[in-house]
Design brief:
Order of helices and strands: EHEEEHEEEEHHEEHEHEEH
Strand content: 25-35%
Largest sheet: 5 strands, mixed, barrel
CATH topology: Rossmann fold
Structural class: alpha/beta
Helix content: 10-25%
Number of domains: 1
Distance between the termini: 40 Å
Length: 284
Amino acid sequence: MLNKLAASELVLNEDGSVYHLNLLPEDIAGKIILVGDPDRVPKVSQFFDKIEIRKNKREFYTHTGTLRGERITVMSSGIGTENIDIVMNELDALVNIDLQKKAFKSEHTALELFRLGTCGSVNPDIEVDQMLVTENVVGLDGLLHFYSDYQFENDFSRTFMAGFPYENIKGMLYFSDWAQDIAHYYEDAKYRGNTATFPGFYAPQGRQLRLKALDDQFLETLNDLGVSNFEMETSAIYGLAKLLGHKALTVNNVIANRRRGEFAADHHASEKKMIAWVLDRIIP
């Protein structure tokens, strides 16, 4: 273990804040809501009783305040697992690295991280405008293979790998699951399922404009292997949370059912319902 991190490894801004998030340790709470869209940050923080911190840099917007007497943070990550790699590592640095000394702290702090997002469903039985909590996740982007400590296997991963027919993609797959010890927050969710995290919006999600996708049965194949929905961030959140010793849960608003060709009539209304539902459960 390094005694001191080099300036090129732990990059800080002039005020001592972490490079991309532009945050100091005192700017975040122990419970953090992660959203993709920066415009969703004020949609969450409007429920707070008080907002004390407003900071942003690039696509990373952060509001920290209090709700029912408890401190809470909401932060935008932008789109994709590459952004989650930044968010997760810099959030961890805020609580587990002494930024002034650039040294690891002797005592570990575990954050509780709650992704609120949108997703599409590949299961024809899942209704749009409903919430789905991710229990297991498969990442198709390869991110966790860049970390030497990554190891994960369970019944879902074994079944999925055994049946996955796309050999050119198979080497990129990695798996993780929810933080079971905080899963009780969402025990009354209508749906819980297995999520696929994709590295793109078009061909990776089976869409075809001028470029052809891998084949016309990709989403159906994933559903046959136990996948219920798909999005673009959860595999990195769950996987890095486990490696770094944090606790993570994802709940997504199902705005499309690709197998039925349906899209939510007013996903903004169901999004607001999801935000209130999550806040009522994590800070009762």
